[in-house]
Design goal:
about 350 residues, alpha/beta, 8-stranded parallel sheet, 15 helices, about 50% helix, binds adenine, binds zinc ion
């Protein structure tokens, strides 16, 4: 079994403090267990257990999604979204998060009668408070939930475009759209219209694919949906031509190695993960947590565990962080500033070798 670099070690401390970018994290999947219980009680939702962490063991992506959906259901109003966003950003900052593009997936809440403008405004309020307090920055990606189908996705895309035209509170924080949830029984081409509407309205595009589907589906996301990044993309290595294209065009993957073990059950141990093969192939394979609170992860641990499993050096891990900067959707000036910050940290945080 591979072991993470210990937090107390010089390399562990440096990886924790390294300013990190995260491009694949679901805000609902970062809800503190205590908050899950609190919001469930507040909103009259009966949980099957007192301690929600008792539910956090998964046999498959679809098994995980049943728990994720329950956690999502605890969010009842704008204030709940604000609390979630605030705590999520603070918890990220505690492990060196500098910048995150965070998913939110509102289909379930919209179906229950919540208003997209209120959800966006609540998230904006919470992130703004955390930004002021902790210096972290968070922007948003609105994910379509494939479980609700393409017609709902099309309607949500149209609503986002309308909110942007109206200059709704917080909508500037929503940079893009994507889709997530189950891949089984789904085809990317069903979502062409939703992604086209969002793209025409100025939203960037990404897509969860290749967690439970093959490389053809990954290619379809790029060609049919206009995806600029792929979330997970695990199956890409099955097709060398798709790998070559992603390398040549520098289309990024947002990889979540520990999630692939704890959620998708795709590997028994991190040491078996294809992440090193992805990076050796020259892919822009960024490092992310996915659903940190539902999998007992944080971004510092993600970096420490990858460094430990593959015996990667400080400089290699800084290069991983820099790929996150390259793949993010910040404006060029902000991106350059973030790149400088990471490069400065490469030297200022460089762990001294253990005394011999
Ligand atoms: N929603 C939250 N986490 C997810 C994942 N890993 N895959 C698909 N949908 C998700
Ligand atoms: Zn995800």
């Amino acid at each position: 079994m591979s072991a993470p670099i210990e937090l107390a070690s010089p390399l562990g401390q440096a990886l924790e403090a390294l300013p990190k970018v995260e491009l694949h994290c679901h805000v609902e999947g970062s809800m503190r267990p205590h908050t899950v219980a609190d919001l469930a009680a507040k909103n009259g939702l009966a949980l099957p257990v007192d301690d929600p962490t008792e539910l956090y063991a998964y046999d498959s992506l679809d098994g995980f999604l049943r728990v994720f959906w329950l956690v999502q259901s605890t969010l009842g109003d704008r204030g709940d979204w604000a609390r979630l966003a605030y705590e999520s950003a603070l918890d990220g900052a505690a492990h060196g998060l500098a910048y995150r593009e965070s998913f939110f997936t509102p289909a379930r809440h919209l179906a229950a009668g919540q208003d997209l403008a209120e959800i966006v405004a609540g998230l904006d309020e919470g992130f703004a408070a955390a930004e002021a307090e902790a210096g972290v920055r968070v922007q948003l990606i609105c994910d379509f939930d494939r479980d609700f189908g393409h017609a709902v996705a099309e309607d949500t895309a149209a609503q986002l475009v309308a909110l942007r035209r109206a200059g709704a509170t917080g909508i500037d924080r929503v940079l893009g759209v994507g889709y997530d949830s189950t891949e089984i029984g789904q085809e990317p081409d069903w979502y062409v219209e939703a992604f086209r509407t969002a793209g025409a309205g100025g939203f960037r595009r990404t897509a969860h694919q290749g967690e439970n589907s093959g490389p053809d589906a990954i290619t379809a996301c790029v060609d049919l949906l206009g995806a600029e990044r792929i979330d997970h993309g695990l199956s890409i290595l099955d097709d060398p031509d798709v790998v070559k294209r992603f390398v040549d065009e520098r289309i990024a993957l947002t990889v979540c190695p520990n999630s692939n073990i704890r959620i998708a059950n795709a590997y028994a141990d991190l040491g078996e993960h294809c992440y090193p093969a992805m990076r050796a192939a020259g892919l822009v394979a960024t490092l992310n947590t996915d659903d940190p609170a539902l999998t007992d992860l944080d971004l510092g641990y993600e970096y420490r565990s990858v460094a430990g499993a593959f015996d990667w050096s400080w400089d290699l891990m800084v290069d991983v962080a820099l790929d996150g900067v390259e793949a993010c959707w910040l404006e060029q000036d902000d991106k350059a500033a973030l790149r400088d910050r990471v490069e400065t940290a490469r030297n200022s945080l460089r762990p001294s070798p253990a005394p011999s």
